[in-house]
Amino acid sequence: MTKYLHTMIRVTDPDATIRFFELIGLNEIKRFDSEQGRFTLIFLAAPGDEEAQVELTHNWPPADGSPGEEYGGGRNFGHLAYRVDDIYETCQRLMDAGVTINRPPRDGHMAFVRSPDNISVELLQDGHLPPQEPWASMPNTGVW
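Given the sequence above, the corresponding structure tokens read:
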């Protein structure tokens, strides 16, 4: 039987990425550091849904002091999607923390934001909420 385990994304700043996902409602559930492999794996999940995880992979900078690998075009893999209890409250919490709402929840159902590493994250309302301002009139920003 096939079972979903996790989605892996590479991140350059684990702390900033964890703070971003905490705003959505995810928590760190386990972490693994590999001194020999020079990487850290951090697993996050929503409370009560610990089987659906996102794995943050942080490849440490090279030991020789040269810059680490750059990750671009996070959208090329698609996006992560999370159902939320109140899309307006979630988007407001993200905005208050300085996150750009790339595709606002004009329809009371769907929004898109980006993680600190430019990973596209879709937020889906559990059900539909009636359209509300300022969201109903808010334009898209950038790409999502």
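The helical segments are 14-24, 87-96. Try to locate this feature in the token string yourself.
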